[in-house]
Structures are given as structure tokens and as C-alpha cells.
Amino acid sequence: MRFDVITLFPELFEPFLGSGVTRRAYATGLVQVNLWNPRDFAEGNYRRIDDRPFGGGPGMVMMAEPLGLCLAQIRSDRAEASPAPVVLFSPLGPALNHAAVEAWSASAGAVLLCGRYEGVDQRFIDAHVTHQISLGDFVLSGGEIAAMALLDAVARLQPGVLNDEGSHQFDSFNPALDGLLDCPHYTRPEVWAGAPVPEVLLSGHHGHIERWRRDQRLQITAQRRPELIDAARAAGRLDKRDEAALKAVKASEAGTAGPGRGKLL
């Protein structure tokens, strides 16, 4: 798959693309990333890509013309039968979630537009942008961090990128976990700062361990993201043992442990 990133700061991506486990996806070409600076398509000595907004107001707006020329070059370079989707990272879009990441990871890629300043000329958005994506209800100084978040999430789902092929199957929000949050994880030493590893994880009994992990996922999800429990229940993904575990969470919270501090095991 191929992602073309339109950004005024391509240097921000260089350490990102060469670091961490996901670098394998970029180095091997599983996820091809090309960086494009719209300033290269601007006119004049100053290569200006922004101007003051009509109607007044603070800040500057990215101009449609250099963005349009940059996108035209990208489309010529991609030489695809149908134009690739154009994604703008914006508060107007839906929040990025696991389902969207899975969809993009199975796609042929997209053009990612990293906005800056007060935004992008609406005429370019109306003419070319096919998707808008948000990371949440907050504002960043530009779309680069959001683009990296999408690229990283997509890259780690590609075959051979993670050390353990099944690792991503146990991520939070993954349908393999019925959309629940992940459970706690522990490693050596067995006791750290007076806190021991839960005994069940040292038992070697795979059935007990899996049940403990499932119960922990249910507990954490019920406490932190109860709407995910509702969704799993509505989809018929919870069995009788799951419901019993959830009742234990409520009973524990109603007792001496206090809200949000109940323990299943």
C-alpha cells in the first residue's frame, strides 16, 4: 500500500519512519510512504503557501493553489486508474478507531493532508478531500502527529511487522477480544517494590490464565469504558461466565473496595 503525505514539515517524519518495530513496514515497502512539501509547488521567491482569511480574523489559511498542484503531481506519480482517497486530519472528522485502522490497513493507501495554521481553503477541501479524521476532541498545531498515528496503527497490522504475528490480535478494541480493553501484563522479577505477580500467571495452568485474563478485560472495560461492555452484550459476545464476572465487579465495587477498585481475583 502507498501513502503520500502532504506536509510543510517532512523532516518530522524522518525519525518516525526509521524508528521502532514499524520501521520494518516502511523499510520493506509493505507500507510505502512518500513525503510532499506543498511549498515546492508555490510561486514567488518566498514560496508562500498561506494567506490571511477573507472576512478577517486571526491566523492564516493554507492556499488552495499550491495544494492543488501538489496533489496533481501525486496523482500523476501514482498513475492509478481511480484517484486515491484524500484524507484531511481535522476536528470535523470522526475519531480514529480500531475499525477504521483495520479498513485502512486493508486498503491500497491514501493521500494524507496535514493541515497547518487556521486550516485549509475550503475550496480545496470541497474539490478533493474524501475523508476527514480526528484523533479526539482537542486541537494540534498540525496534522503531522495525526498522520503518524494512522501510519503507525496501519503499519503494525501488516504481516511480518510485529515480532509475534498474533500480538495485534490481543490489542484493546480488537474484535478478537470482543472489542474489550486489554488485560494487565507482567514480566520479571516476580516481586518488584513489594508487589508480586498474580499467582495465577505463575501457575502454568493455561485454562486458569486465560480465564483470569478474560475476567481482567471485563473488569477494566466495565470500569473504564462501560459502553464497550454494552456493545459486546448487544452483539451477543458475552457468555454466562462473562456476565457472572461482571456481577462480581459490581458486587466488589459496592462493598469495601470502593468504586473502580474492585478485584475479580
UniProtKB/TrEMBL annotation:
GO terms for molecular function: tRNA (guanine(37)-N1)-methyltransferase activity. GO terms for biological process: tRNA N1-guanine methylation. Its EC number is 2.1.1.228. Residues 1-230 form the tRNA methyltransferase TRMD/TRM10-type domain. It is found in: Cytoplasm. It catalyses: guanosine(37) in tRNA + S-adenosyl-L-methionine = N(1)-methylguanosine(37) in tRNA + S-adenosyl-L-homocysteine + H(+). Keywords: Cytoplasm, Methyltransferase, S-adenosyl-L-methionine, Transferase, tRNA processing. One of its GO terms (cellular component) is cytosol. Pfam families: tRNA_m1G_MT. S-adenosyl-L-methionine binds at residues 115, 135-140. The keyword Aminoacyl-tRNA synthetase does not apply. The keyword Methyltransferase applies. SUPFAM superfamilies: alpha/beta knot. Specifically methylates guanosine-37 in various tRNAs. Homodimer. HAMAP family: TrmD. Belongs to the RNA methyltransferase TrmD family. This is tRNA (guanine-N(1)-)-methyltransferase. It comes from Rhodoferax koreensis.
